[in-house]
Protein 1
Amino acid sequence: QVQVVESGGGLVQPGGSLRLTCVASGFSASEYHMAWNRQAPGQEPEFLGSIFPNSQRVGYADSVKGRFTISRDNDNNSVHLQMNDLKPEDTAKYHCGSARLGVWGPGTQVTVSS
């Protein structure tokens, strides 16, 4: 069964950091573009960035460039999203997945608040 599951979300103060993990099963994540999106209540999904197949090359949305970093962990068939200098407007549910496979995870909630 092809699926991904995200983890690592939580409550963090403004300026803090979190590292999200996306674990894939049923396929080799390293062979696919893997993307991170987020969706806040009442808003449209927002693309954050994606990592290229068989590569550490990444493209980011302007809104997170310089603060967020996507990387691969091929030994664990996973992808990470390191988020630094978090702001209240980063509060959302974060999802990872592959558009090519049409598979997205249930998401992990990130709340940035003092």
Protein 2
Amino acid sequence: QVQLVESGGGLVQAGGSLRLSCAVSGFTFSSYYIIWYRQAPGKERQLVAQITTGGVRSNYADSAKGRFTISRDNAKNTVYLQMNSLKPEDTAVYYCNAQNWAYAYWGQGTQVTVSS
């Protein structure tokens, strides 16, 4: 059974930090790109950061550059999103997505709320 379980969200003050985790099971994690998305109320889902299968390369949305870091531990089947210097506009539900050429899987999301 494929599962992607996000955790680590919560309420934080502006300027604070959170570390999101996405624990994966049910497929060969190391063969999948991992992408973090977020969706704020009334807005479209947007890509935040992505990382290649081996974790060598990563890309970020302009809004995340310099503040967020995506990483993965293939031995633990887990991907992380370290978020620093959080802003109220980072408030959203954050989703973990795993994809390869044939399949794409989603987690249920974790809420991040940044207060001003």
